[in-house]
Write a structure and sequence with these properties.
Number of strands: 7
Number of helices: 1
Strand content: over 45%
Largest sheet: 6 strands, antiparallel, barrel
Helix content: 10-25%
Order of helices and strands: HEEEEEEE
Structural class: mainly beta
Length: 128
Amino acid sequence: MADLLEQGASFLDTQRHAHMTRPVVYQRGAAQVELNATIGRTEFEQANEAGLIHRIESRDFLVRTADLDLGDGPALPKAGDRVRETVGSSVFVYEVNAPGGQPPWRYSDPYRKALRIHTKHIATEDLP
């Protein structure tokens, strides 16, 4: 008997991918791949030495696990990788990372079909 929850999750992932994504470029060193990503966000809370809580917001990119292929088969994100998102005449550059020793990515579903990649905006470039 088929796992109905997994089938439902696959259907929803297919719909997300078809209707809620935009093209981005994922880079690791000289290797890069264009893939479709859903834009999201995650709020992190981090206490400083004085006990004050700081809230930090990450721009997240949800991508299919199988799509993150940098030439040697599917790869997992690494801190320091870059995501480039073009909006109009600007390219927003994000670095893969998360604050406070948190992992820079996680699986977005229990079946490991999608990755949620946490990033921080580091630069904005103008297109020629």
